[in-house]
Design goal:
Structural class: mainly beta
Helix content: 10-25%
Number of helices: 1
Strand content: 25-35%
Radius of gyration: 17 Å
Shape: extended
Order of helices and strands: HEEEEEEEEE
Number of strands: 9
Largest sheet: 3 strands, antiparallel
Strand order of the largest sheet: 2-1-5
Distance between the termini: 30 Å
Length: 101
């Protein structure tokens, strides 16, 4: 299934943009077909949904800021990233962090 069609499937379930109190629990959708997945059955790394297995899923946390752009149906979400590093005798040493809202 094409990404645009998957996003439209998700949009039909959760709407076009985030709002305070929109849903109480994390919403999880299959990366391959956009169908809802019970949050308790999804785990990072690998999940099975229908006749396929995937490592990635669309997750919508209740406090996540997002919207689906009308012009092209693209999913937009707030995010930030940084890589910290320092020089060591054997090369650069990096600190990777996982951001949580």
């Amino acid at each position: 299934m094409e990404r645009k069609a998957i996003i439209q499937t998700i949009r039909s379930v959760i709407g076009s943009e985030s709002a305070p109190g929109k849903f109480a629990a994390t919403q999880v959708f299959c990366f391959e077909d956009g169908q809802p997945i019970p949050p308790e059955s999804w785990r990072p790394g690998l999940y099975t949904h229908g006749d396929h297995s995937r490592q990635r899923a669309y997750l919508f946390d209740p406090v996540m800021v997002w919207r689906i752009r009308d012009s092209d149906g693209e999913l937009l979400h707030a995010s930030a990233a940084a890589v910290l590093w320092r020089e060591e005798p054997d090369g650069k040493r990096c600190c990777l962090m996982r951001r949580r809202l």
